[in-house]
Amino acid sequence: MSTDRQRAVGNLKKRTEPMSDAAADLRYARDILAKDSNHQRTCIPVFGTGLNIQAATMAGYPNKDDWHGLLAKIALEVLPPGQSIETLPRTHLALWEALLCRSAKKTARYPFQAENALQRSICEKLRMQEAECRSFDLYRLVAAGGFPDILSLNFDRRIALSCRDQRFVAGPSPCPLGSHGETLFRHSVIQHQNGTTTRVWYPHGDVKKAATIKFGVRKYGYYVAVLREYVGAGDGSWRYRASSLSHLADPKAKSALLRKTPAWVPLFLSRPLMFIGCGLTLQEWPLWWLLRRRAEIGAPPALCLAIGTEGVPTHLRGLPEVRTIMFGSPGELWSALLSWLSTDAKEVS
Amino acid sequence: MSGPAGRTRSVSPKERLRRALRDEVDGKRTSVFVLGDGVNRQAARTPLKRPTEWQRILGAIWREAGGAPEDINLVEQSPVALWARLVRQWSAHHRLSRARSQQAVRARLCALFEPIEAEERTRRLYARMLDGRLANVVSFSIDRRLVLHSGASSVVAHRARGSFLQRYLEVTGPRGRTKVWFPYGETSRAASIDVGYAAYDERLMMLEECRAKLMDQNNRWDYGFGPGLLPPISVYPGLWDAPPSWSHLFLCAPLVFVGVSLPAEDWPLWWLLHQRARYFVPFEEWQIAETFYLTLRDTDVRHLQNGAAGIEVVTFEDYDQMWTLILAALDAPGVDFHKGWNRQFGLRRTNRT
After folding, report:
1. What is the model's pTM?
2. Helix or strand run (H / E) with residue B108
């Protein structure tokens, strides 16, 4: 972390500790979005599916692909005719598990094989959508927002693809953390005309490689443990048989490679975060694991921009990990965000 | 164990539950009860709107930690979230590290539960449950009212191996021995108590290790991995009377959840339940084990509905009706599972030759 960034984080910690009301939260939002003396933002925005929905709304595009809609499409392929998604579990994780178990039964395959097939199916659908939606204005506005790093919890690469000059970085091969750890390193790099770059990270995987997609209980569980390995709190002995410990053969070389390879986890743990268009439900195991770790090491709370008229959702109340600002509608949220981004003059001292 | 008893889906859930509760081998019930604080509530006949001892004790510790009563919602928040808040509050109030605060909160919990355990062990419900000749019970409560009940002649702790997977107390009553497993720890050893999310990552890894081992041990390798995997109905008889851990039970035993909330944020628990559901996929209905979740008709169980993780929600009008069914099934003579099993699969594997 550069000195500027360290100072910015330090200032934020000092400034935010006594604040708790709505005005303080708004001030906090503007503060963490402010640019530093290098004209770069220290904050990392974390976008969820709300970004795609809003981008489609702004472009007047009818086919808004929220998660439930996508899973409903998958359900059509898996369920017998006449049976609707309403007959399946309600939460997304349990719904995914139910879909893959039914798909496995239907096709006489094992659940992991069915899961791979469903992931491929999701990727195909998202790639088609990606091709149709990449030119939407909101993606370009976000990409040009002056962020050196962006986390996209979506699997698609629409933010990067909305820009002319972009490339994809797949990370080290073979991955030092095995195939489960590839998503720590995979990202797009956008080259802006003013010479700056923006990296777009895909913590939940990307449509370029279906196998990287992190969804479902098994993948989430594994991911939490891989993150734990990455931050040095454990090794991979729990997931490799003694006879196949090739990934651990040379721990020194492995840790050296991990140190020099850019990844999103150190950024997540150290930089101000702003969750936008993301429900941050408690089912997001890997995210919550990292948010808790972040709080433990004394990082300032992440900010969550949420939508609702009945106050902060129960699961986000009174937490040291997250502060929440509520907006009445998605339109309000996005216009507030875009107005904050357009007032760039202020710098963190 | 389902199947051989002929419990098809055409039979009502309550009837299948009743039959599952009566299955037995060697005079011991094969179903595993997973019990929560609801059992204590029923035993003490606590009115629904009154907070439970667990909530009252956490409230007392919250006040000891300088917390204002209005700052904590003991009823709405899950035990996991409450525990985390409590430890944070203790740490801030007493200026102690998180680890030390956790120790202190654990010690206070044990101290505050002690008189309750002593007083309430005489409740008849605990004795009646264990008189049902249960081989294994998993207790999500940390208190030991169930094992200390007045009819128990001895309680032996088995915790030398330390892991949260292997902690159990063995209680001997007039009708035999029952192992009561405590995944979240129990009050005889404060250090064992871990209700919060701090160790979730480690727990997930230990559960995965345990699952992988169980699958490896129960695979006929000459058929390859997958086609050679034995169904729960073949695996369970080999381990039900001496399971190495409660997660073995969670993966292949018939489970009956009573008085537990199964909060969505308890990742390790849900991870295990979904692994169980995945494990069952390649097998026929008669080869897998049933999973019942007992609750009241009006309870909000949206996260469990429509078969989440293969769980079947069985609803009752009120708790009395629920417990009448459970106790009647436990009081009734068991149905020996041996005959049907032997007829279909040959002699079951057993430690005794």
Report:
1. 0.89
2. helix B98-120
